[in-house]
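User: I've been trying to design a sequence by hand for this structure and keep getting stuck. Would you show me what you'd pick, starting by listing the structure so we're on the same page?

Assistant: Good idea, let's start from the same input. This is the structure you sent:
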C-alpha cells in the first residue's frame, strides 16, 4: 500500500485500487506507447479525483469534531472512516460532501478546458478524463444504493428503524442499474452493480457486509 499524509489525514492506497482503475482505463487495450502514457495519466487523475471525493467527507467529519479520520482508496472507490458518532443530519452532510467536492473539481476542470487546451494529445486526454471521472463518479455516488453516498443518505433519512426498507430500495436500484449496464455499458459496470445487489441481499438476510464493498 502507498501511505502518506495530506492535510494531516493519513491516506492509504491499496494495490487493488490501481488494478481496478487500470481495467476501467483500458489496460487490456494499451498496446502502444501513446496508450500506455494515456493509461498512466488515467490512473493518476482517477486517484486524484477519488481522493478529492474522500477529502470532502473527511473535512466535513473534521468540521463536526472528529480528529481521527483516515482515508483509504481501494477496490471500487474509497473510504473515509472516522471515530465520532454522527447525528442523522451530520451523516447526511458528510455523505453529500464527497460528491459535492468531486463535482466541483470536475466543474473547475471544465472551466479550465474551455479557456485552455494543451497541445499534447495525451495531456488533453488526461485533463478531459479528470473532468469526466469527477462528474461521473460524483453523480454515480448519489444513486440510492448502499454503500454509495446516496445509499448512506437514504439510510440516514430513513433512520435505524427503517434500515430494511432502505436496503430493499438499494437492492432494487442495484438490480435496475445492473440491467441498464448490461444493455448500455460494459461487463465491468455489470459486475460493479451486481456486487452491490449481492451485498444488499446479504445484508437483508442478516449477514455481514463484505468489508471491501464498504465505501463512503
Amino acid at each position: 500500500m502507498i501511505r502518506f499524509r495530506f492535510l494531516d489525514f493519513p491516506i492509504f492506497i491499496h494495490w487493488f485500487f490501481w488494478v481496478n482503475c487500470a481495467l476501467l482505463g483500458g489496460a487490456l487495450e494499451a498496446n502502444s506507447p501513446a496508450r500506455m502514457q494515456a493509461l498512466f495519466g488515467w490512473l493518476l487523475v482517477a486517484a486524484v479525483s477519488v481522493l478529492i471525493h474522500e477529502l470532502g467527507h473527511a473535512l466535513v467529519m473534521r468540521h463536526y469534531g472528529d480528529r481521527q479520520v483516515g482515508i483509504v482508496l481501494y477496490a471500487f472507490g474509497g473510504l473515509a472512516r472516522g471515530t465520532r458518532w454522527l447525528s442523522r443530519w451530520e451523516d447526511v452532510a458528510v455523505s453529500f460532501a464527497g460528491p459535492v467536492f468531486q463535482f466541483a473539481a470536475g466543474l473547475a476542470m471544465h472551466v479550465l478546458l474551455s479557456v485552455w487546451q494543451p497541445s499534447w494529445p495525451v495531456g488533453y486526454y488526461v485533463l478531459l478524463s479528470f473532468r469526466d471521472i469527477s462528474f461521473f463518479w460524483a453523480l454515480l455516488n448519489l444513486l440510492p444504493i448502499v454503500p454509495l453516498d446516496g445509499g448512506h443518505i437514504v439510510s440516514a433519512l430513513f433512520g435505524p428503524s427503517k434500515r430494511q426498507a432502505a436496503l430493499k430500495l438499494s437492492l432494487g436500484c442495484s438490480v435496475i442499474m445492473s440491467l441498464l449496464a448490461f444493455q448500455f455499458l460494459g461487463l465491468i459496470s455489470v459486475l460493479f452493480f451486481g456486487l452491490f445487489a449481492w451485498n444488499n441481499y446479504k445484508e437483508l438476510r442478516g449477514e455481514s457486509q463484505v468489508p471491501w464493498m464498504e465505501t463512503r
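That's my pick for every position. To get oriented when you compare it with your attempt: Residues 171 and 197 are 5 Å apart (CA to CA). The first helix runs from residue 15 to 24.
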